[in-house]
Write a structure and sequence with these properties.
Rossmann fold, 8 strands, alpha/beta
């Protein structure tokens, strides 16, 4: 790579520069902000959501490039143009997967956009665990990675129980207040060793969420799967979770840890199917076993409390996917995306939204391409694939979601499903929950 015109992020800039990052997981990234601050980084996550971001992305990124790239780059350029930041004291940070996904090339598209817009002095830092070569790679230590792993565990727990509270809260905003309290509390614990009191913290978090006054009216549960950015980011999926809650549904979203374990366990597949050297996947196997053990601790604590429904273990996902899709299908979200749909169905959540960037080939294969196979095996599955793209209108997306919810409600009353389209007509779902109140 030609690095002559690339702005360099030097160690001294930790003290002087604000690093802007795109927001994907509000809870997890809220904790990560405290963690990074403890290591001397001043990080600001971008929460902006408006049409100007899409317009900025279209001006700087070819519209054949996947939608997450367009949004992330558009959001960063929009932030730099806002006048809010000193451009000589601002840097950008972006993740690189290192796999077959086009996400690994976002950084080059971003640097090109910065040069075009006259922001060449703004450094772009790469956050990756793949050892990708190049300038401005974020440097991390083993203690930092360990803390980040625990931040993911805490984030997954809070996201799981918050989604089981928000649709039912008597006073709107109570769930967010408890979230904000624990994001700050856990974030500050990373300054010392308080975050290692896992069982104590888990029980305290669950107790606080359990005290939120909630309506007893059952709501239809809707699982959310898809490309990782579209699945989690409110900017990417047009605030999908907020929309579903507003429509009287309970969103069910798997944790970030499952995606990380998917990435780690794929090293074993690389060894067994593709000839990777044995020593290169051993560390990943040790790490994945440790994280699966920690995930089981969360599941047990939730089960012992008895108020909330625990997530499915990653080990169960490995077993569920067997016989449906090969674990050799690992581009993008690969077999994990199919496994998550199966996970929802097996846990009684037959209504599923698959959020995807239009034109994301790996996800169209392992998601849309697998819907018919899943429905043949589980005819009560009510799955709708929603494409997100600059040309896709929000009203069209919401209408398809409302139709999926209408099918779910009719299933409660024993009615017939209304077809989404000729290619993917949802079957009637079984009774998952009572009809939601308006």
């Amino acid at each position: 790579m030609n690095t002559e015109n690339v702005a360099i992020f030097t160690p001294e800039m930790k003290k002087t520069h604000t690093i802007l990052m795109p927001m994907m997981l509000p809870i997890h990234f809220g904790i990560m902000k405290y963690l990074l601050a403890d290591y001397g980084y001043h990080v600001e996550f971008l929460n902006t959501r408006h049409q100007g971001i899409i317009d900025e992305g279209l001006r700087n990124v070819h519209n054949d490039t996947c939608y997450p790239a367009l949004l992330v780059i558009g959001q960063m350029i929009d932030a730099l143009k806002s006048g809010k930041y000193d451009l000589d004291r601002t840097a950008l940070m972006i993740t690189q997967t290192g796999g077959g996904c086009r996400a690994s090339n976002y950084i080059h598209l971003l640097r090109k956009a910065l040069a075009t817009c006259g922001f060449s002095q703004v450094p772009v830092v790469s956050l990756n665990l793949s050892g990708l070569p190049g300038v401005n790679t974020f440097h991390y230590t083993l203690p930092m990675l360990l803390k980040a792993g625990y931040a993911v565990l805490y984030g997954d727990l809070m996201m799981c129980v918050a989604n089981q509270c928000r649709p039912y809260e008597v006073r709107k905003g109570d769930t967010q207040k408890v979230l904000d309290k624990w994001i700050e509390k856990i974030g500050k614990q990373f300054r010392g060793k308080g975050f290692l009191a896992l069982q104590k913290n888990y029980r305290a978090i669950l107790a606080d969420f359990a005290q939120i006054p909630r309506k007893q009216t059952a709501r239809i549960k809707v699982g959310i799967v898809g490309e990782i950015y579209m699945k989690y980011s409110p900017l990417g999926n047009s605030a999908l979770e907020e929309f579903l809650v507003g429509e009287g549904a309970e969103p069910v979203v798997s944790g970030l840890l499952d995606f990380l374990l998917y990435c780690f366990t794929n090293n074993e597949v690389d060894y067994k199917l593709y000839g990777m050297k044995k020593w290169s996947w051993r560390p990943a196997m040790w790490l994945s076993r440790f994280l699966m053990h920690e995930q089981q601790k969360i599941i047990r604590v939730i089960e012992q409390q008895g108020v909330f429904t625990p997530p499915t273990s990653f080990q169960s996902l490995l077993e569920l996917v067997d016989g449906t899709i090969s674990r050799g299908a690992k581009m993008g979200e690969g077999w994990l995306l199919t496994a998550e749909m199966l996970e929802h169905i097996h846990s009684g959540v037959n209504n599923i939204v698959c959020a995807q960037p239009f034109g994301c080939l790996p996800n169209h294969i392992v998601a849309k391409g697998m819907i018919r196979k899943i429905k043949d095996t589980y005819p009560k599955a009510n799955i709708v694939a929603i494409d997100y793209d600059p040309s896709a209108t929000r009203i069209n997306q919401e209408n398809r979601l409302k139709l999926m919810l209408a099918n779910a409600r009719m299933a409660e009353d024993g009615g017939d499903a209304v077809g989404q389209d000729a290619a993917y007509q949802p079957h009637v779902t079984s009774g998952v929950a009572a009809t939601a109140d308006a």
